[in-house]
Structure formats: C-alpha cells, structure tokens
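R.M. (postdoc): so does anyone remember the format we settled on? I'll just put the structure tokens first.
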C-alpha cells in the first residue's frame, strides 16, 4: 500500500503564498510551478526515501528529507505509511534549523 500524503497547515500557506507571488509576474509560470510541485510530491508515494535526509534538521533520524524544485525547498517527513509535507521555502531565504 502506498503511503498517504498529508500537508501541514504551514506548508499549505507557504505554497499559496509562493504561488500568489509568482502569479504577479506570470499566471502561466505560477501554474507550472504549482503543478510541478504537486507532481513531485505525488511521486514521493512511489519512492518516499528518494531524496537525501534534510541537512538543516537537528538530530535527524533520517525521516526528515528535502528536495528542491524551481528554487523552492520542500521539506517532508516519511514515517511508516505517511508522508507529511512540512514546509516550502524559497531557496534564497536563510534556512532555519529546526
């Protein structure tokens, strides 16, 4: 059985904010970025450990992972049968360790 994808409220807000910002310049670009992010996240269901452990997570047990797409860093956690999308940040922003 494939793992379920669940989103944190923070990650949904961050995605919405990023897409709204991109839409100011180009609606088409915003749709492309949004579709690509959702496509990559859906692909995680097949291979949830595809990406490296998150280097910004303190005491990471390997379950916190991250990848980048269109200058956005998506952080997620894979445990048992669940992929939880934790946050979406532009790569130009200073990373916050957590």
């Amino acid at each position: 059985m494939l793992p379920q994808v669940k989103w944190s409220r923070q990650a949904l807000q961050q995605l919405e904010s990023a897409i709204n910002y991109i839409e100011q310049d180009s609606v088409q670009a915003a749709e492309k970025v949004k579709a690509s992010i959702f496509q990559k996240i859906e692909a995680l269901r097949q291979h949830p450990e595809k990406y490296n452990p998150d280097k910004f997570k303190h005491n990471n047990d390997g379950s916190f992972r991250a990848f980048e797409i269109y200058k956005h860093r998506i952080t997620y956690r894979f445990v048992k049968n669940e992929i939880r999308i934790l946050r979406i940040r532009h790569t130009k922003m200073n990373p916050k360790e957590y």
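R.M.: ...and that's the designed sequence above, right after the tokens. Also worth knowing: The chain has one domain: 4-90. The domain at 4-90 is CATH 3.30.2310.20 (YaeB-like fold).
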